[in-house]
């Protein structure tokens, strides 16, 4: 990534007092509007260059198609894996619930037995 800096702030009084004709604000505008010879000139390829360019385009097209297919299959695998993990998680949650229920039931029975034992000892 190209680093971008804030523009240099030159006060108007100082800018007016500068001894040369080209002011900083004029330079920026000139750079934007003016294109150099290299940007303007037309590039004409000979037949060998055209063939190379077409070959590279074809290669890139094939590569892009492969990448697209790979991404689609990866997304499908991800969906399948999420569905499978959700199913497994649901099964684990059901087992956890059943286990908790069994534990609470057993704890309730133990508490009940203690209560009965205490009531017998008290009376």
Task: List key phrases describing it.
single chain, 123 residues, mainly alpha, 4 helices, 78% helix, elongated
Helix content: over 70%
The main sheet comes to: none
User: Rough shape?
Assistant: elongated
SSE succession:
HHHH
Low-confidence stretches: none
Q: State the end-to-end distance.
A: 86 Å
* Count of separate DSSP helical elements: 4
Proportion of residues in β-strands:
under 5%
Mean pLDDT equals 88
Number of beta-strand segments: 0
Query: Whole-number radius of gyration?
Result: 39 Å
Structural class: mainly alpha
Could you describe the 3D structure shown?
It is a single chain. The chain is an all-alpha fold and 123 residues long. The protein is 78% helix and 0% strand. It has helices at residues 12-17, 24-33, 37-40, 47-122. The N and C termini lie far apart (86 Å).
Secondary structure layout plus pairing:
Blueprint lengths: L11 H6 L6 H10 L3 H4 L6 H76 L1
Short recap of the structure:
This protein is mainly α and 123 residues long. It is built from 4 helices and no strands. Helix content is 78%, strand content 0%.
């Amino acid at each position: 990534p190209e680093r971008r800096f804030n523009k240099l702030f030159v006060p108007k009084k100082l800018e007016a007092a500068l001894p040369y004709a080209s002011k900083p604000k004029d330079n920026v505008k000139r750079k934007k509007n003016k294109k150099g010879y290299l940007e303007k000139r037309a590039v004409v390829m000979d037949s060998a260059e055209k063939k190379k360019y077409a070959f590279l385009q074809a290669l890139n097209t094939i590569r892009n198609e492969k990448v697209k297919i790979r991404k689609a299959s990866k997304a499908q695998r991800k969906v399948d894996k999420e569905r499978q993990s959700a199913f497994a998680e649901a099964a684990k949650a059901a087992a956890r619930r059943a286990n908790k229920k069994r534990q609470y039931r057993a704890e309730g029975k133990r508490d009940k037995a203690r209560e009965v034992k205490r009531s017998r000892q008290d009376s």
